[in-house]
Known about the structure:
By secondary structure, this protein is of the alpha/beta class. The chain has eight helices and eight strands, in the order αβαβαβαβαβααβαββ.
Amino acid sequence: MSETKTAKTALVTGANKGIGYEIAAGLGALGYRVGVGAREEVRRESAVEKLRAAGVDAFGVPLEVTGDRSVADAAELVERRAGRLDVLVNNAGISGDMGPDWVQDPTTLDLDLVRTVVETNVIGVIRVTNAMLPLLRRSASPRIVNVSSAVASLTRQADPDIEIGPVMAAYSPSKSFLNAVTVQYARQLADTNILINAACPGLVATDFTGFHGPRTPEQGAATAIRLATLPDGGPTGSFFEDGGVIPW
């Protein structure tokens, strides 16, 4: 088998910019061959070129997480290019339309908005994960990281003494749903070598947040990179931020 097929390979969804790009860059700097999953061709190829200029072995993966055909094609592409998958980072996500002050009021919430957010943030993750599982099972140390958010923590949301940000009745529950799905995967895969965890990047200044937030994309990528490179026997079915485990 050629060297290109023996090197560890990672796929990062939504990797054309922001936190996803920095996760791809960080894994690439560690020697991983990185598939840049993104739906927009120009941004995707621009990210690949930038990563390659930095010395990363990167390749583009056309990927729309809400499309069955797109995800199946992506799995076929990764198989052709790498033969297996060692790391899957489900980073692609959307917040959905926000009202003033980033509020999504549950009492006036557009149900189509909820469906759209869940389709990307939860169903999209399930779709991609299941498509990539056959390739992950070929790895000696497969890792799955679902990029979540501290606003998914029901413990923190329900504590009036914790400042958790505005009411986001579509986005926050979608990430709670994602966390719950992560736990179910961990339970189902408990007798395998696949480790799956959720990562919170913190409040990062990207276009996702309107460039508000104290953290850089590089800082936001750190926890996901750590979970993507866990040693055998590491934690699974848990929820982490830089400071450690986040309560459910």
